[in-house]
Amino acid sequence: MDSAGDIAIRVRGLTVRFGRATILENLDLDVRQGETLGFVGPSGSGKSVLLRTIVGLVPHQVGTIEVLGTELDSASTKERERIEQRWGILFQNGALFSSLTVAQNIEVPLKEHTKLSRGLIDELSALKIGLVGLAPEAADKYPSQLSGGMKKRAGLARALALDPEILFLDEPTAGLDPIGAAAFDQLILSLHWNLHLTVFMVTHDLDSLMTICDRIAVLGKKRVIAIGTVDELLRHDDPWIREYFHGPRGRAASAAE
Amino acid sequence: MSESAAARRPEGWLQAREEGGALAIAAGGQWNLRTAQRMERDVARFASFKGKSATIDLGAVETLDTAGAWLVHRLTDTLKAAGASVQLINVGEAQHALLERLSQLNAHVEIEPPRRNVFLLIFERVGEGAHEIWIEVIEALSFLGLAMISLAKLLIHPRQFRARAVVYHMEQAGLNAIPIVALIAFLIGVVLAYQGSMQLTRFGAEVFVVDLVAVSVLRELGILLTAIIVAGRSGSAFTAQIGSMKINEEIDAMRTIGLDPMQVLVVPRMLALMITLPLLGFIADIMGLLGGAVMANIELGVSPGVFVERLGDAFSPWSFGVGLIKAPVFAGIIALTGCYMGLKVTGSAESVGRYTTRSVVHAIFAVIVVDAVFSVFFAYIGI
Ligand SMILES: Nc1ncnc2c1ncn2[C@@H]1O[C@H](COP(=O)(O)OP(=O)(O)O)[C@@H](O)[C@H]1O
Ligand SMILES: [Mg+2]
């Protein structure tokens, strides 16, 4: 099922412009099924834009995006909806609905897209709360009562509500303390193992990259300039990549590895 | 459990065979969120099982997600609750890990905070509300005091005067409000003259329509309407601006840098409104009279000349004065309410919305109460 050969996300010749500013140009990318792909690049290089383009929140001018074998541009509304239920997205600050409790937030996609019984929905949402490592007491709290790290976990639980095959994460550990970030890394790892997720993760956390990513892609010059395992990228000769992985922080993280 | 319980299904299925108190259950196909609705019903059938032992064979299960795994877990629980010993067989490594993980989790949480008794809640709300009003009055008064102190400081250190901010807010709250204030005042003048003329013609006292319009617009309506419009336009804007800054921790940053939010945010807004509201009120007065004159001309044939002449008789400088003297007070109320509510914002963007609404409602309420006090006062001293 998750043989390395299958491609979960295939992007070809993608160009995204905002007005006259070209953010991404002729970008190609393959994300393999079952892998955890880390995405790095200078700030403002368009990592978030790429993620948002793939999930259809930002329109693109040229190129094709194929997710789980379906080409999104030519797909019918129904096919698109079906694909959308097979991915989950964790936004940078959780993006929880502020008028609903954590448990109700997780139930929103379940109620919208399934016809399960009330009892089963409640249980599934409780399970998701446990899976992301939140205490049961957090369930009936409103987002304004949660800390930043808890909001992220709750957002992750909602992203996992429909048991997606692909998980998109935009800087999931940004703003967490190192212990919280490490715990989050472990969480992604365990979810990856338990739920066979394909993870597409934008991150600047070198520890995350080293710990949980199977491969790393580097965005620069409006394209993916390198993609490969940590070892392969350590040997890469692009100046930015060298600076990134061989700078003081990069050395510390790989030494810890 | 008989054969009928388990017709083979394309998506997900459960088959059960019973041999002398031992139940052999085979599960297969898709066990996931999409099939969970049916599988839940299938699983529930086993609640009536009366036997000693059961085996569940997962060998034919193709996909198992958390929903499916949870139902397998439920099946096990159901059988155990019915008094049987249960054994899972042919469980894949990954499936085992998932089942294991789920069995450690708590499946029962409170979905929302407990609902309260409605009657108790009503009493509680009323009590809380009354208490809150009291607290708010005290807080508002101390805020007023703080604002006065800041103003006094400004008199001592005039160099702290933030002219740019004042001018900016004068433009936003004053200049940009002219069209809407003028239009509404004009229309009110028109309406007053029209309604007045309908009544007054019955007594043959048409020409007193001028007095009617002049007294109501100059003494009350001109400035009151202006204050209400400005409370809606600018009081709310003050709350929203300061509230978002509060959420963004800008106010905290200001304090740590040594800037006084009172001096930087509140005083310029208050001064700007205190300067522009009388001017807006004046414009409203003029436009209200103009509207009255136009309508008096159309409806009663009172020519502009007669209108002005009559106005001269009805008009004492105090008519203007009585209206406009209230303007700076109203301005102070609106600006301080707006800023005070903005500074009370905490936490989320939702809170900004709540306090913005409150700011407008409270400001208008306070303006009308103070207007009533002014009326009584003016009547008492006889102007
Ligand atoms: N909606 C938008 N409209 C215009 N420009 C945008 C928009 N979203 C992002 N950009 C621009 O695209 C560039 C890449 O942004 P982003 O993807 O957020 O960078 P990062 O790699 O740090 O996540 C930035 O220069 C940003 O200004
Ligand atoms: Mg970003």
Spell out the blueprint of helices and strands:
The complex is a heterodimer of chains A (about 260) and B (about 375).
Chain A: E1 7-18, E2 21-32, E3 36-40, H1 47-54, E4 62-67, E5 70-71, H2 77-84, E6 87-90, H3 102-113, H4 118-131, H5 148-159, E7 166-170, H6 178-195, E8 198-202, H7 206-212, E9 215-220, E10 223-228, H8 230-234, H9 239-246, H10 248-256
Parallel strand pairs in A: 3-8, 3-9, 6-7, 7-8
Antiparallel strand pairs in A: 1-2, 1-4, 4-5, 9-10
Chain B: E1 12-19, E2 22-31, H1 36-44, E3 53-64, H2 66-81, E4 85-89, H3 93-103, H4 118-156, H5 163-174, H6 178-200, H7 209-247, H8 250-257, H9 261-300, H10 304-314, H11 317-324, H12 327-344, H13 349-381
Describe this structure in words.
The complex is a heterodimer of chains A (257) and B (383). Chain A has 257 residues and is of the alpha/beta class. Helix content of chain A is 39%, strand content 25%. In chain A, a hairpin with a 2-residue loop joins strand 9 and strand 10 (223-228). In chain A, helix 3 (102-113) crosses helix 4 and helix 6 runs parallel beside helix 7 (206-212). Chain B is an alpha/beta fold and 383 residues long. In chain B, helix 7 (209-247) runs antiparallel to helix 9 (261-300), helix 9 (261-300) crosses helix 12 (327-344) and helix 12 runs antiparallel to helix 13 (349-381). Chain B starts with 11 loop residues before the first strand and ends with a helix. The interface between A and B is medium-sized, with 34 and 30 residues. Adenosine-5'-diphosphate is lined by residues 18, 23, 41, 43-49 of chain A.
